[in-house]
């Protein structure tokens, strides 16, 4: 198994894909994972990749303003790819389904899995791993549907498609199709092992309360008070910061809401929800689902913690591997919010990841939601998270 990455800033999609295809090893080329900024149209990428790399399983997802690989952080109009070369007996298959408000998400997920399993020629076999990308809105339901399909929790890594300014210019594609509203996934039957992880990297504060009113992804009341008032008061009391009611996306990135998922040695760990804006009802619009009765905690993430957390998560994942020499490569997912908040310090995050991987190939988009596997084995969706998948040999 071999990983290869390449990045292009060519603004002409056809020429950009040709450049990427020429840079990839064709022998045993089994999978290509592609991240691109919104300047490239997904239907054009799908067409050009299918012409340049016929017969290769492909999944693509838009990213916020740039992409990170083992070769550095790349902003601007950009396409980055991770190619996986595996031997012929190890299969990969992708599936994409358009999803609208009228669609049944569970049925759409089952359909996407059916397409992917058929392409991989492994129907009836449990995948070793799944890469998942969808447009924002239905991530939790998609994960639940995947778990129910296989009656167990297959390790996943994923990220919600992003654009540059949260105005709906996100998209996904495979070698067969593309959409601005739907889900895409790729099933892996790889020759090497995969260790996956999902973590928040934020610390809980003393402020917490119960959700007493909500509507899907709109948090309306905390402890029977308007959610916007409670949230802004918590930030003011904790940090002495007055957040304007129109919100500053990068500022509130430092103070998400957390919900406990489990415990490690009596210490709770969390999945995060990122407030996007205040609603007309005095509520908070989130990038995750929320439910009545759940306890939410104000979380805090200072700059140094956010810089170091991706490296820390990879270090934790590496504990399952006996030697760094076993590492083949990695996929990382980092939320767009911390990337925008850190600005130039995102290059320090790159150094942390590269050091932990000893220069091995990796790719990392900046997404509007992150999916992965917690330490207890649960697959989940959260915001402002870091998700990782480390491929390693058994030797």
TrEMBL record:
It comes from the Bacteria. InterPro entries: FIST_C (IPR019494), FIST_domain_N (IPR013702). Residues 27-226 form the FIST domain. Residues 227-374 form the FIST C-domain domain. This is FIST C-terminal domain-containing protein. It comes from Vibrio amylolyticus. The lineage of its organism: Bacteria, Pseudomonadati, Pseudomonadota, Gammaproteobacteria, Vibrionales.
């Amino acid at each position: 198994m071999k990983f290869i990455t390449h990045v292009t800033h060519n603004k002409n999609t056809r020429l950009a894909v040709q450049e990427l295809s020429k840079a990839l090893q064709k022998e045993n080329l089994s999978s290509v994972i592609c991240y691109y900024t919104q300047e490239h149209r997904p239907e054009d990428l799908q067409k050009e990749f299918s012409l340049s790399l016929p017969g290769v399983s492909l999944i693509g997802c838009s990213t916020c303003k740039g992409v990170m690989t083992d070769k550095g952080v790349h902003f601007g109009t950009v396409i980055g790819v991770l190619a996986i070369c595996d031997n012929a007996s190890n299969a990969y298959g992708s599936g994409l389904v358009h999803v609208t408000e009228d669609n049944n998400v569970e049925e759409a997920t089952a359909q996407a899995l059916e397409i992917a399993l058929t392409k991989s020629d492994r129907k009836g076999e449990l995948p070793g791993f799944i890469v998942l990308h969808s447009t924002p809105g239905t991530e939790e339901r998609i994960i639940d549907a995947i778990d129910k399909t296989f009656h167990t929790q297959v390790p996943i890594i994923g990220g919600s498609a992003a654009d540059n300014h949260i105005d709906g210019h996100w998209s996904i594609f495979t070698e067969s199709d593309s959409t601005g509203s739907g889900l895409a996934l790729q099933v892996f039957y790889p020759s090497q092992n995969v260790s996956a992880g999902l973590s928040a990297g934020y610390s809980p504060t003393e402020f917490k309360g119960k959700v007493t009113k909500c509507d899907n992804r709109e948090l309306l009341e905390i402890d029977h008070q308007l959610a916007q008032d409670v949230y802004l008061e918590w930030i003011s009391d904790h940090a002495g910061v007055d957040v304007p009611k129109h919100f500053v996306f990068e500022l509130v990135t430092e103070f998400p809401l957390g919900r406990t998922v489990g415990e490690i040695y009596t210490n709770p760990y969390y999945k995060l929800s990122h407030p996007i804006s205040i609603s007309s009802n005095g509520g908070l619009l989130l990038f995750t689902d929320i439910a009545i009765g759940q306890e939410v905690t104000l979380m805090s993430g200072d700059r140094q913690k956010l810089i170091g957390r991706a490296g820390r998560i990879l270090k934790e994942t590496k504990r399952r591997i006996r030697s760094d020499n076993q590492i083949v490569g990695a996929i990382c997912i980092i939320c767009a919010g911390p990337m925008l908040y850190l600005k130039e310090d995102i290059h320090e995050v790159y150094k942390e990841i590269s050091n932990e991987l000893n220069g091995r190939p990796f790719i990392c988009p900046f997404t509007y939601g992150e999916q992965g596997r917690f330490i207890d084995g649960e697959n989940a969706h959260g915001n402002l998270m870091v998700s990782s998948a480390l491929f390693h040999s058994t030797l």
